[in-house]
Write a structure and sequence with these properties.
Distance between the termini: 24 Å
Helix content: 10-25%
Radius of gyration: 15 Å
Largest sheet: 6 strands, antiparallel
CATH superfamily: Hotdog Thioesterase
Order of helices and strands: EHEEEEEH
CATH topology: Thiol Ester Dehydrase, Chain A
Number of domains: 1
Shape: globular
CATH class: Alpha Beta
Length: 139
């Protein structure tokens, strides 16, 4: 299966800001996990996906009120029961990278036990291969 990018746009409003007037990391984390979840759940059933680790959510530049940000997510690693999503957040106007990181999800049954998902990903793009190698190095 080829890698598919999922896109979500958000308008940063005053209620999304911290005491410095920039995007609150807690709100960002919620959107970040949601974007990664959408990518993982699109490959199977949402009720079978559980987030187990946010491997990093590294801000590269501040985000201000009124900015429209674009969250792009895709699953870059599929092991036996685990799916790893890469999420990047861009300024929707300038395409500047605001933050990025990886999240791990586990494919589970209705009792919460890890089960194989049988998903095989096809990496053809050099950037996707580089993301795969980074995802493999995550613990």
């Amino acid at each position: 299966m080829k890698l598919k990018t999922h896109v979500i746009c958000r308008l940063v409003k005053s209620e999304d800001l911290n005491h410095h007037g920039t995007l609150f990391a807690g709100k960002t984390a919620m959107w970040f996990v949601e974007a990664g979840f959408i990518a993982a759940a699109s490959l199977t059933h949402p009720e079978n996906i559980v987030c187990i680790n946010v491997h990093g959510m590294l801000f590269k530049k501040p985000v201000s009120s009124g900015q429209i940000i674009r969250l792009e997510s895709k699953v870059v690693l599929a092991s036996r029961t685990r799916l790893v999503s890469y999420v990047k957040v861009l300024d929707n106007v300038s395409d500047q990278l605001c933050l990025d990181g990886f999240l791990s999800f586990v494919h589970v049954n209705l009792q919460g036990k890890a089960i194989p998902h049988n998903i095989v990903l096809e990496h053809t793009d050099a950037d996707d291969i580089a993301l795969l190698e980074k995802a493999k190095a995550l613990k």
